Amino acid sequence: MIVVNPSLNALHLPSVKSTFTQDVTPIYETTMDLLLKEVQGLFEQQLRVESLLLLSRKLQAEFKQRLQSSPQCMLPSHNYTLPTGKEHGTYLALEVGGSTLRVALVDLDGRSSSTHSLRIRRIVTSTIDNRVRDLRGLAFFDWIAGKIGEMLAADREACDHMQLKEPLPMGIAWSFPIESNLNIRLDAIVNDSSAAVLSRAYVDSSTRLAVILGTGLNAAIHLPVSSLHESKFGSRQFPTNVETTHVLVNTELSMFGKHAFRVTRWDEHLNAHHILPDYQPMEYLLAGGYMGEIVRLIIVEAVETAGLFGGSLPPSLSIPFVLDTRTLAAFEADVYPNLSASCIYFQKEYGLAAAPTWGEMNFIRQVILSVSRRSQGYFTAAIHALSSLLHDLDHRLLENGLDHICIGCDGSVINKYPGYMGRCQALLDQLVHIEQDGRKRVVLESATESAVLGAGVAVAMANESGWTLQA
Hints:
single chain; alpha/beta; 5-stranded mixed sheet
């Protein structure tokens, strides 16, 4: 028989659940250290000089194949010659971009005149906002014409010229038809990469190609006409008043390298979710419009698998493409050991509730370094491939006495990202040296404002009887 103490019936024994709480520490698949080592290995596996040289040779083969067959790449322009540097005058130049319109007066004073032989005399920038984009028919071009008129009206001597019967010569970067009642004449149309070649070649006769590396990527190169298949020129009539042995070629460089570059799972994710997958494989791997997104995708994985930010992704970082190259540059430019400058910027820019730890900041910085170093390596391999193509196809280079070839460089990444151009130049020197086949040194030179300046040079070449402003 079991005897029960009646007093126990009134005793309220606490349950285990209400008395004890479990301290559950999240278990992650990996650690930030291990993930960082994996990132560094994947992004740097093709960056040895020998690997970059092999990559360059693969791209050279692709370039040569596309010179013969592709309707999308290696497109010959209608610009056959490079400037002599003797062109003089002041010309109207227009650049129509995706978000801005720039109207400028460009002065050409001759290559040997001074360090300011090519300069922008006056420029006005206007935003192409949604209201402007919604303009229909000729209304958009009427808006452009109005902006041209406003800029010219602000310059007394240009205004005086507009009263003359002779129209003012104009060049435009990109192909937009301009019809207006202004006394102007459209004499030259160039794209951004061709404009970069022309602007740099005006001040440096060793220039034969140029690259644009900012949000996107492109390059132009001056090649013998004979190096392109005749189908590339269609039924065009070649001009008889200029030499047509060579032609300025728009490479559409961003479209190359699909089967040449090694990619990571984050690159594959970006490409698979892109509105145009596989369309511009080189651009997706190295251009400024994508570097930040690759870093963001790694951060997202680090939060989920390695406990970055305590396993909780800041809401702002869940937005695709929110991480831009300004943020990446802030991390790379931070000289403080505790990364205080980039920490303040990062927390403010992306609305973090609490400041990241030093370990978290260092993880992000090291990821950024890996992504940017790969961008520099792949970019260097591409421009080495272009300069090698030039050596192989243009035998005049061996005869003109130049000791180097200049590449004009424009774009926010190549010209403004911390240390980018310098590291590319160092890599390029190593690639040229290791070949030891007597090829000329390739030198990267900044070609800022090249779209506007190049449009000015193009119209000067088309119309050497341009009007001259008296300073």
